[in-house]
Amino acid sequence: MTPDDRILAAELVVGLLSAEEAARAEDWRAREPDFAAEVEWWEARFAPLLAEYRDVAPPPDLAARIEAMLALPTITPRASRLHWRSLSLGAAGGAIAASLAAWLLIPPAATPPVRTPPVARPVAPAGLMIAQLAWTDPSKASPPVAVVEPASGSLRLSRGVDTPAGNDGELWRIPVGGKPVSLGLLPRGGARVIRIATANVPAAGSTLAISIEPRGGSPTGQPTGPVVAAGVVERL
Amino acid sequence: MTAIETQADTRRAALATALAMSATGDRQAFRRVYDMTAAKLFGICLRICGERQAAEDVLQEVYLIVWRRAAAYRPERSHPVTWLATIARNRSLDWRRSPRGRAVTPIPDGGGVEAADDAPLADQSLVAAEEGQRLDDCMEQLEDRSRGAIRSAFLDGLTYADVADRTGVPLPTMKSIIRRALIRLRECLHDDA
């Protein structure tokens, strides 16, 4: 890491960067553990300044508005990217995985329900499967979660996977004791939904993996590039 | 240990517990997190967004993020209020940098909140006192102009361009003044003395 990078980390934490510069730095933070550590160091050093913000009582009805949204979380289009960026499941238990899965299944354009009876936890549709992926680089944070919905033949990732320019990310299912079978390329750009054929729906206990391949996908039908993330598929 | 410190420790433990319980889907615990921290976080959103409606929207988003992310909080790594305040500040900064946020002229005194340049409130001991003392000491060694710029950038959510505008200093000059100050600050904060 260069001295300039260290200053960039400080500039990000202090909030000096423009939207574009901050987005680039955040992106770098997600990929570069050294830079992420430097950002965290600055955050901890500046934390005492947070004490200078004065308390201001929010409107009394805000708590109820927030609670109503917990019943059926939706993604506001304006904030969707930021939500994902902020999401980290770490050692999440099944309850969190289940509510996340339900959240993933709600299309971003869905309008929030006017009135939702309070439920303890969203109910997962039958047959839903989930894989908490782990980065193969252990120093990377916030690995993606994959949710497979066999009924609609879709697989959603909770966050995008960075691929170097000129490459594509390719998704694989690896049956227990079997060879990897390609599920297709990760969409370029913002989309994180992949259509999969019924025959290609991974079974519980099999492994999902993402590898970095040349543009257009593996030329051999088997992963040729580094596997960046993998995890076991579980039934919800 | 003083009574205020004990009280702060108790509050910290209660908040960390409520966060951990929220992570299991416990809504009552989540409501306790809200009740204990909403005024603090709203103060942050309001000062940075500079507009009440936006601050309310951002605060709402912040708590939805907290609800979903509660499991990621690590009590051994940071104070729960610091963790929550950082989320609130980052979301507010994101809003401030959005096209809508850029169109808003921040209320000079931070949305009706006094500019808090005086001593922090006693019940807001977010971090060990020595951490705060270290930052104060190192900031004190900077020139007035760069110290003021860094403080208001952090607290009010100002970019390089905003700081340059406010002070009438050309942007490249302002950038190099602040960068030099950040380099000095880093050296000072790294010093063990």
Mean pLDDT of chain B: 84
Q: Supply the number of helical segments of chain B.
A: 9
Which word captures the global form of chain A?
globular
- Average pLDDT of chain A, rounded to a whole number, is 76
What would the CATH topology of the largest domain in chain B be? Answer: Rna Polymerase Sigma Factor, Chain: A
Helical content of chain B stands at over 70%
Helix run count of chain A: 6
Q: What is the helix content of chain A?
A: 25-40%
CA radius of gyration of chain B: 18 Å
Oligomer: heterodimer
Q: Structural class from helices and strands of chain A?
A: alpha+beta
- What fraction of the residues of chain A are assigned to beta strands by DSSP? 15-25%
Summarize the helix and strand pattern of chain A as letters. Answer: HHHHHHEEEEEEEEE
Summarize the structure.
Chain A is of the alpha+beta class.
Report on the architecture of this protein.
The complex is a heterodimer of chains A (236) and B (193). Chain A is 29% helix and 20% strand. Chain A is an alpha+beta fold and 236 residues long. In chain A, strands 1, 2, 3, 4, 5, 6, 7, 8 and 9 form a 9-stranded antiparallel sheet that branches. In chain B, helix 8 crosses helix 9. The relative contact order of chain B is 0.10. Chain B contains 9 helices and no strands. Chain B has helices at residues 3-22, 27-49, 52-69, 80-97, 99-103, 129-140, 144-156, 160-167, 171-190. Chain B has 2 domains: 3-120, Rna Polymerase Sigma Factor, Chain: A (Orthogonal Bundle), CATH 1.10.1740.10; 141-193, Arc Repressor Mutant, subunit A (Orthogonal Bundle), CATH 1.10.10.10. Chain B is globular. The interface between A and B is large, with 58 and 78 residues.
